[in-house]
Amino acid sequence: MCGIIGYTGKQEVKEILLDALEALEYRGYDSAGIAVSDSAKRDVEIFKCAGRVSDLRKVCAQEEIHAKCGIGHTRWATHGGVSDANAHPHKVGRVTVVHNGIIENYKELAAEYHLSGQLQSETDSEVAAALLNALYESDPKEAVYKAVARLEGTFALVILFEDVPETIFSIRNVSPIVATQSEEGCMLASDVTALCRFTNRYFVVPEYCLLELHADSLRMQDMEGNVVEPEYMEVNWGLNSSDKGGYPFYMEKEIMEQPKAIQNTVENHIQNGMPDFTEEGIPDSLFQECERVCVVACGTAMHAGLIGQALIKSILNMHIDVELASEYMYTDPVVDEKTLVIAISQSGETIDTLEALKYARRQGARSLAIINVKGSSIARESEFVLYTDAGPEMAVASTKAYTTQLALIYLIVAKMAQVRGVWNEAQVKEYIAELLRVPAAIEQVLERRREIHLIAKNILEAKDLFMIGRGLDYSLLLEGSLKLKEVSYIHSEAYASGELKHGPIALITNHTPVVAVVTQSRLMQKEISNIKEVQSRGARVILFIKEALLQELKQEIEIFTLPDLKDEFMVIPASVALQLMAYYVSSDKGFDVDKPRNLAKVVTVE
Ligand code: AGP
């Protein structure tokens, strides 16, 4: 959470910082600010405000800002409400700081160093700035080392010292910082999306390494002062891949990108029609030797895990748990060296997932991560990594990350079936061939998006909405329902249809919208009965059904037919249809689809 940027180089810094903050805004959008280091004045000036980067642009437009070095921040509030004063950067004495993370012992530090009188905000971050200032005599590095030794919690700190012009210092614990050097100068950021307009080469700053950026050089050293060489990696996202590409919102663009993203993800992991993870160095033994599987993930990524659970149980007849990462280590999980832990995360930075993975590894579990962002913390923590080829996902509501995670899950299931001797080669190939048909099926849903738009128009006024289905349909509806609530603010609940009679059906009244998904042949008759139950209590049913299952259903049901695939693959086209429905509800209501209230794309606080 919170986006951080820093630049020092040949170019005027104002627009660089503002553009980068816009690219990072999905990490938090409560307030924004920049600080620039003016070498002529030997001064650091701050411009900040509550609100969006667009508000900060207005603040900056009124000022003459000429500098070639600066830092910026876009905030997701933790300590202290949303206000101008709580916006970053924070300046105390000669030190200016932007911070991502939580300083847990900020009250103790403020008391011990008598900092309260210098503080103007309610933030833990300003205490870090005041502490650095208190410890700063003449050597910035010494001040950083001393301060960091006292900080408890997570932090990515980016620091300007007023009397060290055009130089940026940074240090981190857990919260991410990546950096790069190009012809134009040196840059750092919370994540690579802010850098990829300049370069596709970057490195992750290791924890507790002090990074020092100058206009034409950068240097890293560890806490003992030893030089640490950056380990550069490349991102294969195009320089413009984080643009909206002509769409009004990233969410729409990202929904539309799914056929290609899935195709890339699958094609990069098959060889002669068989799943292939040799490039990632994943040995077959990882899948052969485990006795149980455990998925740790949050939100949408956890929902992808639920689909994996259903497939692994039914195809491999194996024990698999799907755990909310935030609960995992507090619920005495059964985990040992025979457990394969699969951590799923788009960002690779979700702190709960990271901590759950670390916990499982401490108990001896083997690990595999499914990640979209190269070199992210979870990717580095996991023994093995499979990357989704989704490209940057900018909308807070996850769409293409989910479906590409599913694509990798299907491949993992096929690989496990192969190496555990559940399927012969022909069966594996048949399964992969069906997976390769998924992008075309998505295309068919996307081509008919106007029909889904019409369905969306009929639920704009709903206060409450229910989604019902069985088996895989129930699992995908949990995700469909999350999507709708996060972007449309409609209260939506997904229920296993058989569970309705055990309580929730009391909430169905005349005209309550109920979205039903029917894609599983063996469950169809029961699903239809459940639909009739809610209909007879007045519900207005919207049905998404696999075309082959469409039978003599009542005309009064609004129906969207989904292109036919084998049942286990229907999850993806059905999910895309629900994503579109959520998107249209949100955009028709005039909401900022990409930045729903209270949310942030990357959740780096527990
Ligand atoms: C998805 O729409 C969400 N906004 C959210 O649930 C997200 O999936 C979750 O925070 C996990 O993020 P990650 O995949 O980056 O770990």
Number of helices: 19
The appropriate CATH architecture of the largest domain is 4-Layer Sandwich
Give the number of DSSP strands.
26
**End-to-end gap:** 11 Å
* Shape category: globular
Instruction: List the uncertain runs.
Output: none
CATH first level of the largest domain: which class? Alpha Beta
Question: Would you tell me which CATH topology of the largest domain applies?
Answer: Glutamine Phosphoribosylpyrophosphate, subunit 1, domain 1
Please estimate the helix content.
25-40%
Bound molecules: 2-deoxy-2-amino glucitol-6-phosphate
Number of domains: 3
Spatial arrangement of strands, main beta sheet: 3-2-4-1-10-9-11-14
How big is the Rg? 25 Å
For CATH, the homologous superfamily of the largest domain is named as Aminohydrolase, N-terminal nucleophile (Ntn) domain
- What portion of residues belong to β-strands? 15-25%
How would you portray this structure in words?
The protein is an alpha/beta fold and 606 residues long. The protein has 3 domains: 3-234, Aminohydrolase, N-terminal nucleophile (Ntn) domain (Glutamine Phosphoribosylpyrophosphate, subunit 1, domain 1); 247-436, Glucose-6-phosphate isomerase like protein, domain 1 (Rossmann fold, 3-Layer(aba) Sandwich), CATH 3.40.50.10490; 446-591, 3-Layer(aba) Sandwich (Rossmann fold). It is built from 19 helices and 26 strands. The protein has an 8-stranded antiparallel β-sheet with strand order 3-2-4-1-10-9-11-14, covered by helices on one side. A 6-stranded antiparallel β-sheet has the order 5-6-7-8-12-13, covered by helices on one side. The N and C termini lie close together (11 Å). The mean pLDDT is 94. It binds 2-deoxy-2-amino glucitol-6-phosphate (AGP). 2-deoxy-2-amino glucitol-6-phosphate (AGP) binds next to helix 9.
